[in-house]
Amino acid sequence: MSTLLATAIQPNSQTDFLPLQGTDYVEFYVGNAKQAAHFYKTAFGFQSLAYAGPETGMKDKVSYVIRQNKLTFVLTTPLRINNPIADHIYKHGDGVKVLALRVDDARSAFEETTKRGGKAYLEPTVLNDEQGDVVLSGIHTYGDTVHVFVERKNYNGIFMPGFREWKSNYNPTSTGLLYVDHCVGNVGWNQMNPWVKFYEEVMGFRNILSFDDKDISTEYSALMSKVMSNGNGYVKFPINEPAEGKKKSQVEEYLDFYNGEGCQHVAIATNDIVSTVTQLQERGVEFLNIPPSYYETVLERVGKIDEDLEPLQRLGILIDRDDQGYLLQIFSKPLEDRPTLFFEIIQRKGAQSFGKGNFKALFEALEREQDARGNL
Ligand code: FE2
Predict the structure, then answer these.
(1) How far is the CA of 52 from the centre of ligand 1 (A)?
(2) Which of helix, strand or coil describes residue 230?
């Protein structure tokens, strides 16, 4: 099996039983949501949006909602022990719990997915306040991660019933982050194809790209990956599994420290990656280091690009091309002390693929970090 780029994604609302309008929000369960919100605002340029906690009638947890353009994060922390949020954090550390998807009809989304085998997480539930109704429903995906379907067409409030506006005197400038481009899941040995089947059968996604262990291997370790896309291409979920190598795969390191399957990275789009990454680095966000040798040959591989190479090399931004154009991408170091979740920043200039040409340089960079942690 070699790399395969499917023809352009065709929206087909007639036959799409799960029409998605995109990512609604990403919810992280974290040990200290107050501090996490400050970190994401400061380092990444989010703005305060909404808050829920004891003051708004939510007795056992606190959630802060932050936003930048179309990117919405919810940071949730438990106030007490012995509940699913506290257990999630004990087991996984800070991580992604909910990949929430915007739908026109959350009841239909629940019915269509559960009748195809999706495991119920949240029965359709109507939340209501003076600003209108939000309907939520949800199903389980890999590990303890879930998809919540959010129907908000009859809601005019700031975020959702139960939340109040969070006004802050501290409003750092945006770094140009726009929206979620894709979210990658790491699953266990031999579990990639079952999860591909889940996204195909339960959610109506298609496999648009596949990478085998020949595509994604270094001298030491390997992984396999398949990219799943919904009908209109707004939602893409690549699924990785470890493959045999001389040493431990980066996916295995993740599975060890996350204690199971989960979200490996969230890729966030920008229209100006040089400006975005310059600001992120000034604010202390750390990225994987790319050796100077990468830049000596990269233009021979990808051809002419609009950007000067110098800032790309200085910042460590990678370049790749497919038959539709090129893309610029960079990967952060893990966002917490466990080597688990990280972010990718991506600027697409035509290319709809995922940077296959960068895999070797990228995974060698990851392995240097893994080796420094003693986990290679
Ligand atoms: Fe990615």
Answers:
(1) 31
(2) coil
